[in-house]
Amino acid sequence: MMSFLRLMRALITLVRHDAILPVEYQQLYPVPARVLGTMARLFARREKADNPGERLARALERLGPSYVKFGQVLATRGDVIGERFARGLARLQDKMPAFSDDEARAVLEEELGKPIDALFSEFGPAVAAASIAQVHKAVTLEGETVAVKIVRPDIDARIARDVKTLTLGAKLAERFAPASKRLEPKKFVETVARSLQLETDLRLEAAAGSELAEAAAAVEHYAIPSIFWTLSARRVLTTQWVDGIALSDHEALAASSIDKAELATTLARAFLGTALDRGVFHADMHAGNLFVRPDGTLCAVDFGIMGRIGRSERRFLALILHGFLTRDYKSAAEAHFAAGYVPAEHSVEDFASALRAVGEPIFGKQADEVPMSRVLLQLFEITDLFDMRLRPELVMLQKTMVQAEGVSRMLDPKHDMWAAAAPVVERWMRRELGPEGLARDFLDDMVRLRDAAKRLPDAIEDWAEIGRKLKAGELKLTAGPRLRPWALRLAWLAAAGLIGAAVTHGLYTL
Question: Which of 302, 344, 439, 493 would be 289's cystine partner, CB 3.0–4.6 Å?
Answer without folding.
Answer: 302
